[in-house]
Design brief:
The complex is a heterodimer of chains A (323) and B (296).
Chain A: H1 3-33, H2 41-56, H3 71-93, H4 98-118, H5 120-123, H6 142-169, H7 171-181, H8 183-188, H9 193-219, H10 229-243, H11 248-270, H12 274-277, H13 280-298
Helix pairs in contact in A: 1-6, 1-9, 1-10, 1-11, 2-3, 2-4, 2-9, 2-10, 3-9, 6-7, 7-9, 10-11, 10-13, 11-13
Chain B: H1 2-33, H2 40-58, H3 62-85, H4 93-115, E1 130-132, E2 136-138, H5 140-162, H6 164-174, H7 176-181, H8 186-211, H9 223-233, H10 238-254, H11 271-285
Helix pairs in contact in B: 1-5, 1-6, 1-8, 1-9, 1-10, 2-3, 2-4, 2-8, 3-8, 5-6, 6-8, 9-10, 9-11, 10-11
Classes of the chains: A mainly alpha (323), B mainly alpha (296).
Chain lengths: 323, 296
């Protein structure tokens, strides 16, 4: 491969990796901080993607909106709508054990998929939305625009990272870990456990919405296929488990590492004989499934395990299962 | 009226039977191993493909080739339990839930690797419906599904109340510590759970495959209504799951009946959303389900 081609392969890799890093940070807030099992990441991602796409795309007869609003407004709105969706889900089932939350969140995601496919007037169904703009469109063309977008994505990754770290170190984050590690004790010292969980879920969902919006703007096109649960929900879970749940650096590293494995296997499987190449995506799925099992059994704390902020005297023997 | 019975009630009962067969296993696993088994739908798919292969090789009717699918599904769950679930048994169950997502993916990708991802059918051509009493037109498959669920219900009831293994299973489900102290062989109970759950899932998979066609997402697409049925029946209550499956199946089909106007009450595109709606309402108002199952 020539150096220029390689460079732009790397750019594309890092843009997608950055979007996954944001998803991973969001899941880390929900699962790593709060111990909440969200199996419907793709749903919040889709809500964010469609919100931003409908607000910023060029007017069209085939779907609602096309308001041509500035991209930043679209991204903020996507955080808002995904957050509201998350609030509704959390309101219903935050009090229940994690298995129920898994079922409910996966169900919400499936219903959202049905709405997106069935409601043509809103989303143009499976044909999708075209002409979704990128930020600073028209400033640069072609491949330079990709580099610009890479910078935008990673600035947002940095921003989300800083926010998440701030949350983790704050009294709010400490309370949250107390809730996660020992719910009864947290309740006994007067913390409103349900309210803390609700806030966690909403914050995570809003960040997932932002990731959805960034993906829609990157591809300039959005259809239901872009929100495939296997590629969004499942891959993000593997990334966070591998990177180290509870640790924001781990979340980003895990996202890049697993995305790296995913992309690398694509290169490898493309060199297989034609009859196998068509099945290459299944081999990759199989590998990712096995990787998850390996991490669960051997590296539960991930590449970069959780480390509580210094200066907390009573933190020595917290629950080992969380890293 | 006849239209209601022929096109809504009987298909609803048949769909309910498929959900019920899957939900019984999910409910038992939830009750005994304490986790939501997200790979159960893909166990169904494995059963369907195993049976399909046997049909190809032998030319038998799918229901006669069923044992092959059952053996494949049971072997798969026993293996998955040994390799992937058992090492995590001492951890919080949520890790096993995550592992079961992974197992679902492993099963599905293996199916796609071995059998490909195109649609397959058990029997080619259009099946002629049977006509009973000159009025009731019913497909043979739907009758078979309903017959199977009746047999399964009787057998399950007998097994759970009259056999030693069945009673041990209920004991472990009701109170695992007490059952262990009383000297019950927990591992044996776990094994029986997987064998029964896997077998019923394989039957459900074949029925679902006969009803539509066989493709790698066959079972995964049914997992939500089956969870809804499990919760509706009360977790850890196999007979409740059976009842829950029938209710969910009926509601899904009947929701498309033109009850009020000439239009279907609910757009058929959203048919499977009704099961989920029921699940949400239950989670809010009666999470222990109809038969007062355990709230984990």
């Amino acid at each position: 491969m020539d150096p220029v081609g390689l460079l732009f392969y790397l750019v594309a890799f890092l843009i997608a990796g950055g979007i996954y890093a944001i998803l991973c940070l969001a899941l880390n807030v929900q699962w790593g901080y709060g111990g909440l099992f969200n199996a419907g990441i793709a749903g919040f991602f889709a809500v964010g993607a469609y919100t931003s796409a409908l607000l910023t795309a060029a007017p069209a007869q085939t779907h609602l909106g096309g308001y041509e609003l500035p991209v930043p407004i679209g991204i903020l709105a996507s955080a808002l709508t995904a957050g509201i969706t998350g609030w509704a889900v959390a309101k219903i089932c935050i009090r229940l054990k994690s298995d129920y939350l898994a079922m409910a969140s996966i169900g919400i995601a499936e219903i959202l998929r049905m709405v997106i496919v069935n409601e043509d007037w809103l989303t143009n169904g499976s044909l999708g939305i075209t002409n979704v703009p990128r930020p600073f469109d028209g400033l640069l063309q072609g491949r330079d625009a990709d580099i610009l977008y890479l910078v935008v994505v990673w600035l947002i990754v940095g921003l989300v990272y800083l926010i998440c770290n701030r949350l983790y170190d704050s009294p709010w984050g400490r309370t949250l870990r107390a809730v996660r590690d020992n719910e009864d004790a947290a309740r006994a010292v007067g913390k409103d456990v349900d309210s803390f969980r609700l806030q966690t879920f909403v914050i995570g969902a809003a960040i997932m919405g932002v990731a959805g919006a960034l993906s829609a703007h990157y591809f300039r096109f959005l259809s239901p296929e872009a929100t495939e649960p296997l590629l969004i929900t499942f891959l993000t879970w593997v990334m966070l488990m591998a990177g180290g749940s509870g640790n924001n650096k781990g979340a980003i590293i895990g996202a890049l590492a697993v995305w790296g494995i995913w992309s690398m296997t694509e290169i490898l499987t493309n060199r297989l004989p034609a009859e196998f190449a068509t099945r290459s995506s299944y081999i990759r799925m199989l590998l990712i499934g096995l990787l998850l099992q390996f991490v669960l059994q051997r590296y539960r704390s991930g590449l970069i395990p959780e480390r509580s902020p210094p200066g907390i005297a009573f933190d020595k023997d917290h629950d080992k299962t969380h890293g | 009226m006849m239209e209601f019975i022929n096109f809504y009630l009987i298909p609803g009962l048949a769909l309910g039977s498929i959900y019920a067969l899957g939900a019984i296993g999910i409910s038992m696993i939830f009750g005994i191993l304490r986790f939501a088994h997200f790979a159960h739908g893909d166990v169904m798919t494995l059963g369907a493909y195993g049976t399909l292969t046997a049909v190809w090789l032998s030319g038998l009717h799918p229901l006669l080739a069923l044992p092959v699918g059952i053996v494949l599904a049971v072997a798969a769950v026993l293996l998955a339990d040994k390799i992937f679930y058992k090492p995590l048994r001492d951890l919080p169950t949520i890790y096993t839930v995550i592992a079961s997502f992974g197992v679902a993916l492993i099963f599905r990708s293996l199916i796609q690797l071995i059998w490909g991802s195109q649609n397959q059918v058990f029997i080619r051509g259009v099946q002629k419906p049977l006509v009973l009493f000159d009025m009731i037109r019913v497909s043979a498959l739907h009758l078979e599904a309903i017959a199977i669920i009746v047999i399964a219900a009787v057998a399950l009831h007998y097994f759970l109340t009259r056999t030693k293994t069945g009673r041990s299973m209920r004991a472990v489900s009701d109170n695992p510590e007490l059952a262990r102290v009383a000297g019950l062989d927990t591992e044996k109970v776990v094994r029986s759970t997987w064998i029964i759950g896997g077998s019923l899932a394989a039957i459900a998979g074949v029925l679902a495959g006969l009803d539509t066609n066989i493709q790698p997402n066959l079972g995964w697409n049914l997992i939500l209504p089956m969870f809804a049925a499990t919760i509706l029946g009360g977790i850890g209550k196999p007979m409740g799951a059976l009842l829950g499956g029938m209710v969910i199946g009926l509601i899904e089909e009947l929701s498309a009946y033109p009850w009020i106007t000439d239009e279907p009450l609910i757009n058929p595109g959203y048919k499977s959303a009704t099961a989920f709606l029921i699940m949400v309402i239950l989670l809010i108002f009666r999470p222990q389900g109809l038969l007062k199952g355990r709230l984990l």
